[in-house]
């Protein structure tokens, strides 16, 4: 069972919410375009995309992020009627795609809002499944993030053309910051390309790949952790050997999901002096996308330097 299937566990609740058909709301969907002084209504499936949307739109937009709790496993999120109501009024909807947040499509189809501009980050990325499995965590891929920024800017400019210059200025400034992150990846790659690393889940793989690092984690291990299933004993032993044999420079682990196998790997890394770098799927409290990713790169650089 993949992370995409784990997220789908919440969908029966969505179906019952859809059956409410938004009782008490005005007949038909509201005009999704911003009118007068009203900000553009934006709904993002997670606060990662929500933060970018808010940065580009500034005071011209009102952004609702559905998944935004840094202390919870995003895959255990259960959508509710409040989310459905927000989607029914959204002019722009930003979803991750790739099966990560299918509840958005389910709820949007029941919301009676066919005119909403829907931006799917995985579709924008152009990435496809490798070996039958797609790594849907595309917010760790900076070129994809820049393409999503362009799509958001274009959607805003279409809905509120009078503010198009503001949107472009904000988007350009944001992409300049992302460019600096891409340069930081290139700088690290020049020094550490080919060095071995390990993961608990594929969450940060796009970032690690961009630095040229070699993920030496048995694929069966990370797939089992992501799918929340038991790791075969032989696979677990092969993973633990990465640390006892000091075959990797760091362990990057998703701190929003835990379990006995994850704890065993963390203990093995720490006991063998392998640096541990925590990563998340949503924004840490008080962080923007750029400061969050800057911190991630700083932590990776510090671990590699040990």
Describe the model.
By secondary structure, this protein is an alpha/beta fold. It has 2 domains: 3-181, Nitrogenase molybdenum iron protein domain (Rossmann fold), CATH 3.40.50; 188-304, Nitrogenase molybdenum iron protein domain (Rossmann fold). The protein is built from 13 helices and 8 strands. The chain has helices at 3-8, 11-19, 47-57, 81-89, 102-110, 121-125, 142-159, 164-192, 205-210, 219-227, 233-244, 260-271, 289-304, and strands spanning 40-46, 61-67, 92-95, 117-120, 196-199, 214-215, 251-254, 276-279. The strands form 2 sheets. Strands 2-1-3-4 form a 4-stranded parallel beta sheet, sandwiched between helices. Strands 6-5-7-8 form a 4-stranded parallel beta sheet. The longest helix has 29 residues, at 164-192. The protein is globular. Residues 1-35 have low confidence and may be disordered.
Low-confidence stretches: 1-35
CATH homologous superfamily placement of the largest domain: Nitrogenase molybdenum iron protein domain
- Number of domain units: 2
Average residue-wise pLDDT: 88
Keywords:
single chain, 306 residues, alpha/beta, Rossmann fold, 2 domains, four-stranded parallel beta sheet, 12% strand, globular
Brief characterization of the structure:
With 306 residues, the chain is an alpha/beta fold. The chain has helices spanning 3-8, 11-19, 47-57, 81-89, 102-110, 121-125, 142-159, 164-192, 205-210, 219-227, 233-244, 260-271, 289-304, and strands at 40-46, 61-67, 92-95, 117-120, 196-199, 214-215, 251-254, 276-279. Strand 5 (196-199), helix 9 (205-210) and strand 6 form a beta-alpha-beta unit.
